[in-house]
Each structure stands twice: as structure tokens, then as C-alpha cells.
Amino acid sequence: MFLTLHIYGTATGTVAGMVRRMLHGGGVRTFFQAARARARLPSHADLLSPFSPLSLFSLFGLFSLFTLFSLPASGAQASAGKGVAVQGGAGPLLIGAGILAAVWAVSLWVVARRARRDERRVQRREADVLREQYSRALYAAEREAERFRSLFDLAQVSIFRSTLDGKRFIIANQACAESLGYADVEELLRLATPTRLYQDPRMRDVLLDVLQLHGRVDNMELELRRKDGGSLHVMMTATLHKEEGYLQGAVLDVTEYKEAERMLRESHTFLQNILNAMPTPVFFKDAEGRYQLVNLAFEHLFGQSAEQVLGKRVFDVAPRAYAEKYYQMDAALLASCGPAVQQYEYQVVSAGSVRDVMFNKESMFNEDGGLIGLVGVIMDITDRKRMENSLRRAEERYRALYMNAAEGIFTASMEGVFLGVNPAMAGMFGYDSPQAMRVQVRDVGAQLFVQPEQYAELQERLRAERVVSGFEAKVVRADGAVWWASISARGMFGLGDRLERIEGLVVDVTVQKQSAEELARLVITDPLTGIANRIGMNQHLEKTLRQGARSGCRVGLLFIDLDGFKPINDQFGHRVGDMVLAQVAERLCARLRSADLAARVGGDEFSVVLWDVGDCAAVERVSRELLASLGEPYDCDGTLCSVGASMGASLYPAHGTTASDLLSAADSAMYEAKRARARFCMAAEPHAPEENEGAECVQIPAGK
After folding, report:
1. Where residue 60 falls among pLDDT bands split at 50, 70, 90?
2. Which of 43, 486, 563, 582 could cross-link 507 (Cys pair, CB 3.0–4.6 Å)?
3. What is the pTM of this model?
4. Any residues with CB less than 8 A from the CB of 421 and at least 6 apart, and which?
5. For 125, what's the count of Cα atoms within 13 Å in the CB-facing half-sphere?
6. Cα-flanking dihedrals φ and ψ of residue 83, to 5°?
7. pLDDT-based confidence at 692, cuts 50/70/90?
């Protein structure tokens, strides 16, 4: 009993001291906040735990009250033996301890409740902030995803993702679908199999090997197969994602570039052959003065092959003493602000000997005014120089050469009267004799030049340059025939440096000019059929569209593809196939006006440009006539054979205002005609309503 009373007394004193400090320390709330801070109770959960002060003091108070109510019985029994001293001293202490414990428990309960409420409020606020941040982040992510999806769909480059086994596409953009010939992405994903898109299936294995080795491939050239079976040349950049089970890449369509490269090579070969056939040395230098093109005559003149010359400068080709002169003249020409012509005499070392030559050079610029380089022609004038020296040394020898020279030689006054002409000169211009020419021609410029101002130009150049070589002009024979003459002349000056007369040499260059014109014609002409080729058709279409824009006239374009032509080649051979193509060209030209143009733009593909055609009905009428003509039998080396045709048409300006737009529309309409087996389709208008979209196909039976 004494030990119990001692424990209760000590606890009561401690509680009393705590109550005093609480009362003198600023109130119950401040006391319990400080007590909680000192106890480092992090939350209401700690206050309500079994071993918290709240739980311990609650148990202590309950135990004290229980002891208080049980003391009377215990005290009565004890008083009989030892007296009532214990009951009288322990009762107040137990009552005070119970009250203090109850107050302590209630205070801690209030603090715990407030702490729980504050903690819930903080948690709700933090949850609201987190929800708002999540909503903003989600909105930003959705906007970013939408933006990237829009860029993905609008990209002009084909973008795709496929499974590693190549059995299906996972995603693709519209450009990918269109380049492979599919209407939209859904059709591509539904019908296309990546492994079947390679013209050479082995290239997919090569692609996968490179991806397995490096994880990435850049700009690999591949040939793919379109939906319609056509070839598509591409440059592919792809990456391998082995863990995710897919590969993705971007594909750039380079089909047109490949075709242009092929045509460029063919044109270059053709031009090189033409230049090699010319007896005059010809060369081309770029803007840096490096040789980029030479012909055989140039190789023979300098004694070096094209492989030794191309890419080199004059210092690598000619001796330095001569190369310095060439370099100075080239630099002066290349420094011109626009197209310029340069002519001068100099020398070259050829086969160990020195040759006198005439350089004729002209600077070249592109459409944007950028300098491309210069083209030059070298005329060997060694013989002419020797002749001039001989003429100066001996009058007799001069007279013999003068009278027997194949070139026309003349001397004329500034008033336009001939002072002397040789027989060749008279013969060139159709006069019976030199004397007759001198008598009948009283004004050289007016009577012999198609453009009299050219003779005045020659005089002005002689005043400035004293010697003029290779001056080309159209001249007139006595019978009215026109031909091209190349005039090399020098001025004879008197007192005061006054030009008194002209001495010159005339060469008939009509054949050369005709060759140049023929060369220009061949560039735009199909050699098999004799009609325009793709280059000629494009030039004519551009010119016609400009005329249509000025005059308001409409221009029609037909794109024709022969059906069943390959079996003729296979059965009768390419010679008979060429005969059929020539007959197709003849039939097209026979039913066109002089203002229209027929062209062969591919193997068995033709096109027709119709000037001032009216409307779509007129285009359809002309197309019916052409299809009827093309549907008639052909002479296949003594055997009659038939060839069909599919035709697509477009009309300026309804289907486009540029040549490329019209060609694309007509080409698409032609393929639509093939698909519909209608033989003729008119292209759809670009902005037609949805219910009218697509080409308008007209069923035209064969031979009708």
C-alpha cells in the first residue's frame, strides 16, 4: 500500500507541475502544441497509437478512479487491524490524479483531432494541385501529339512503321500511301505487305542485314513496286527497334530524278556524238575555268585524250607561255555581267608544231543569271595566215590565190561599192563574173545582206577591232536565194585613223548553220517517229499555255497509252513494233490541225496538245476521232494486227494552269480509263464537289 501511494503521489506531483507550466505558459493550446513538437509526433496517428501519451494517461486515469471507488471497502477492513490512516491520506491524491489524467487525455484528444483535420486539409489541397498539374500536362501532351500527328500526315516524305517479319504495316502517312499507288492510308494498311513491295526481294534481306549490324541505314537506294505494278525508285532511311518488334523509316521518291538522270545521260551521249562528228575543235569550261566537255577534234589538236583534259585548267593542258594568254582571255570573258562573245587570234602547240587559230568564245548564264561557264570553238587559221603573208610578200602569188581561192575574197569601199572581188565571191552570190558583180552591186549592205544593218555593224566592229573574224550573216544571191556567210575582214585605215576600205574573206557556212539548226531540232524530235519527243512536247505546251493565258483560249492535253503493243513486239520483233509506232504517229498527225502537236513521250506513250479546243465536249469529240483512227488495223510487215489505246484528257484552265498540272491530270485520267476499261476519261476538276469527284470516263467501244 505504501508503494502504491508513493507512485500515485509522485505522478500527482508531476501532473501538478505540468498543469502549472501549462497555466503560466500561454494556455492549453500553446502547451500541447509545444508538447507535441517536443515529442516529435508527426501526425494524429501517433497520438492515437497504444503507446502514445493519450493512451497511457487515459489508462492511468481509469485505473485511479477504479482504485478510488474500491477504497472504502478496503479501508474498513484495514481499520480493524491497523487503523484508518491510509484511507484518509490516499483519497484526495487519487481524486486529483484521476482529474488531471482525464484533463490530459481530453486535451490530447483535442490536439489529435485538430492535427487530423489539418492533415486532411493539406492532403486535399495537395491532391487538388496534383490533379490540376496532371490535367495541364495531359492537355499539353494531347496538343503536342495532335501537332506531331498533323505534321506526320502532311509530310511530303513517306513515313512508315512495319513489323520485323514484314507481314504488315503498323502505321504510315498519306504520302506513303500515295507514292505506292494506294488511295489512302487505310487501304495501304489493309492490302499492302511490306515484303512484297521490293522489285528485287533480296534487297529486303540486304536492308535487314545492315539494320541488324548498325541499327540504322541512311539513304539506301531501292526499287519498290507500286500497287499498279510500276516501279518506284526511292532513297530509304530506316532504324531497327528489335525489342519493340518493328522497324520504321522515311522514304524519298526519286523516280523523277532517276528518269531525269537517265535522259540527261542520253542527251549528253547524243551531244557528245554530234560534237565528235564536227571537224572543228569545240570545248566547254565551267565558271572556274575547268574543262568539262571536249570533242575529238579538240583531242587531236592538243594531242591529249578527254580523260587527260576533263577537270583540268589550261595550265595543265597547254605550255605555260600559251596558257597564260588563254587564262587572261577566259578571265575577261567570265568577268562579264551578262552573255558576251569573244573572238581573238592566237596560237596553239599541236603535235610539236605551232598552229595559228581563231578562238570564238561565248559566256553562258542560266535562267537566274548565274554564270555557268563558257563555250568555245577553235578554228585553225594557220593556212589563212600563211596565205596572208604570202599575199603581202608577192603580188603575183597573191593574185593567183586571190583568183583561185575557194573562199570569196573582196575589197569594198565605205560607200558600199566593191573595189575588187574574186571569182569565188562572184560565184557564191550568183554573178557571172567578178566584173559583173562589181558593176551590178552598188550598195553592198542593201543588196547583199538580208538585214542591211548587219553590214553597218561589221563596219563599226572593224573601226573598233580592226580585224573581225567569223562574222555570220544572212546574205542574198542574185537569184534571191538566201544563204549563210561567215565573213572575216580587216579594216584598211588612212590618215587620222579613218576607215577607208574593207578587205575580207567570205565562207559559205550554210551547211554548218543547217547542221546546228538540225541539232537543235533533233534535241526536241523523236528519231523513230519524226514527231516531237517529251522535251519538244514540254516546250510546245509551255509556249501554248503562255499564248492561252494572253489570248484567253483553252488548251487541251491528251495522254495516250497503247494497249496490246507488247505482244506485237514479242511476236513480230522490235522492227515491226517500230513500224507500228511510226504508223500511230502518222495517224495522229493526219487528224490534227497545224496548230496542234503530237508527241511520243515514252515507249508506247503519246500525247497531243490541242490549241483553242473549246470545251470538254470538243476534247471528247477529237478523242473519239483519234481513238477510231488508232483502232484500225496496222500493217505488221505484211500481216494485219490490232492495237488498242487508252486515253486521258485534261483542259486548261479547268484542270490546271501549268504544264505539270495538266500532264498529271491527263496521266491520272488515262490510268482511270484503263481501270474502268472505258478507253477515254476526262480528268476531274480540282475543286469539284464530293459527289462529282473522280475522272469522268466515257465508254468508247473499240474501233468507234
Report:
1. low
2. 486
3. 0.34
4. 408, 409, 410, 411, 434, 437, 438
5. 6
6. 110, 180
7. very low
The full 3-state SS of 12-50, as one line of letters, equals: HHHHHHHHHHHHHCCCHHHHHHHHHHHHCCCCHHHHCCC
Buried b (16+ CB within 10 A) or exposed e, 578-613: ebbbbbbbebbeebbeeebbbbbbeebbbbbbbbbb
Rounded Cα–Cα distance for residues 271 and 277 (Å): 10
Instruction: Give 71's pLDDT tier (boundaries 50, 70, 90).
Output: low
229: nearest Cα among 599, 675, 581: 675
* β pairing state of 499-508 and 634-636: unpaired
Greatest alpha-carbon span in the chain: 186
By CB atoms closer than 10 A (0-12, 13-18, 19+), residue 10 is exposed
Q: Is 585 left (phi over 0), alpha (psi -120 to 50) or beta?
A: alpha
Cis peptide before 567 (omega within 30 of 0): no
The phi, psi pair for 393, rounded to 5°, reads -80, -35
At residue 562, φ and ψ (nearest 5 deg) are: -75, 140
The set of cell numbers assigned to 679 is 478507253
Per-residue pLDDT at 114 exceeds 60:
yes
Distance CA 227, CA 209 (A): 26
Backbone φ and ψ for 162, nearest 5 degrees, come out as -130, 165
Find out whether 686 and 655 touch, Cβ atoms under 8 Å.
yes
The DSSP secondary-structure symbol of 685 reads P
Q: Which long-range contacts (CB under 8 A, 24 or more apart) does 58-63 make?
A: 58/101, 58/105, 60/11, 60/97, 60/101, 61/97, 61/98, 61/100, 61/101, 61/102, 61/104, 61/105
Q: Within 469-573, where are the H helices? A: 510-523, 534-551, 565-572
Q: Nine-digit cell at 14?
A: 508531476
